[in-house]
Write a structure and sequence with these properties.
Blueprint lengths: L2 H19 L3 H9 L5 H23 L5 H21 L5 H21 L12 H15 L3 H9 L5 H25 L5 H25 L4 H20 L3
């Protein structure tokens, strides 16, 4: 299969997953892309397609956006990203990755198997959630879990959860895309593959959004925690 067609197919699936759940496209696409693309091509390509996904979802969910929910996460993520870039130069990142993976798997399995509860976290928890998402995202390009857990435990509607995740990921994606552009990572090869994959990721996102509309809140939360288990396993499998 030509790399352009394979890349488009991968992003079709990745867009569908994030269109349905509100997250997860990079964790689906990046491991598969890295099998046949250089990581310096795959990562900025994921970011550009993330802009398509999150912008599309933002237009769909804009009436559910609440600045007081999204802004604290975005502001807290900035120092997290700065610290994450610094820690990336050190050799202890594997411990953080393993700890995060085990936390995701254990907590998500507990949430799936236990009696459903409806906690209501204080809004101040947005600060550590945003900070950790920025930190982990800068180190591993997979910073969603802290914010995903925070939104899932805030006793919001499923539209509020998905809209908050979308607004936060939109901010992060544009921030990282600007950094990639200024550092020269977005080159002609990346842009060429992006032109092939962007229509596919758009179709996937729209199809995923249709499936999301069929999910009730309790089922939506189960889907979130099931994907968090998968994300944890994928983090463990990167060694």
């Amino acid at each position: 299969m030509p790399p352009e067609l394979l890349t488009g197919t991968i992003f079709l699936v990745a867009g569908f997953i994030q269109g349905m759940t509100g997250f997860g496209s990079a964790l689906i696409a990046l491991p598969l892309l890295s099998l046949f693309l250089d990581i310096k091509i795959a990562v900025p390509l994921c970011i550009l397609n993330s802009l398509v996904i999150t912008t599309t979802m933002a237009l769909q969910l804009k009436k559910h956006f609440e600045k007081k929910k999204i802004l604290p996460l975005c502001l807290a993520a900035i120092p997290g990203v700065i610290l994450g870039v610094t820690l990336l130069k050190n050799s202890g990142s594997d411990i953080i990755r393993i700890s995060l993976a085990l936390l995701l798997i254990c907590y998500s399995l507990y949430s799936l198997l236990s009696t459903p509860k409806h906690p209501n976290l204080h809004p101040n928890w947005a600060i550590p959630a945003g900070f950790l998402s920025g930190l982990i995202g800068a180190i591993f390009s997979a910073g969603g879990p802290p914010t995903i857990i925070y939104t899932a435990l805030s006793n919001w509607s499923k539209d509020q959860i998905k809209a908050t995740l979308t607004g936060f990921f939109l901010f992060n994606s544009y921030l990282i895309a600007i950094a990639h552009t200024s550092s020269g990572l977005i080159n002609s090869t990346v842009l060429s593959l992006f032109l092939y994959s962007a229509p596919m990721v758009l179709v996937g996102t729209l199809l995923g959004g249709r499936c999301y509309g069929l999910l009730k809140k309790d089922l939506y939360l189960k889907v979130i925690f099931a994907f968090l288990v998968v994300m944890g396993m994928m983090l463990l499998g990167t060694f």
